[in-house]
Design goal:
Shape: globular
Strand content: 35-45%
Radius of gyration: 17 Å
Number of helices: 0
CATH class of one domain: Mainly Beta
Strand order of the largest sheet: 4-5-1-2-3-6
CATH topology of one domain: 10 Kd Chaperonin, Protein Cpn10, Chain O
Structural class: mainly beta
Helix content: under 10%
Number of strands: 6
Distance between the termini: 53 Å
């Protein structure tokens, strides 16, 4: 069995959307909703940067996460796998983890 390896090209980045943590729903009233109902999501999403094309100009090597407009992420299914790619122009900002000092 062959596993596919994907290489982004033409200024694209291979990303994985970071799922938002769900709130604690304890004590809330439950309402039945249609099966196809999706809760309203933010216009922006944090993504984990997995790989990038050689011609990407932003310094992705220094960062592991970015914020992207959700609608600009392209979802591709190939060989039973889901890929998420985004053009570098749609990276709105890079996220650098901040070290917090414990006092």
């Amino acid at each position: 069995m062959t596993k596919n390896i994907f290489y982004p090209v033409n200024r694209h980045l291979l990303v994985r959307p970071v799922e938002e943590a769900s709130d604690n729903n304890e004590g809330e009233v439950k309402i039945l909703l249609p099966q196809d109902y999706l809760p309203q999501r933010s216009q922006f999403v944090t993504v984990q940067i997995l790989d990038w094309a050689d011609d990407v100009a932003i310094k992705t090597r220094e960062f592991s996460k970015a914020i992207v407009e959700r609608s600009m992420i392209k979802e591709i299914e190939y060989g039973g796998e889901k890929l998420h790619i985004v053009l570098e122009n749609y990276i709105l900002c890079l996220v650098e983890p901040e070290e917090v000092e414990n006092s």
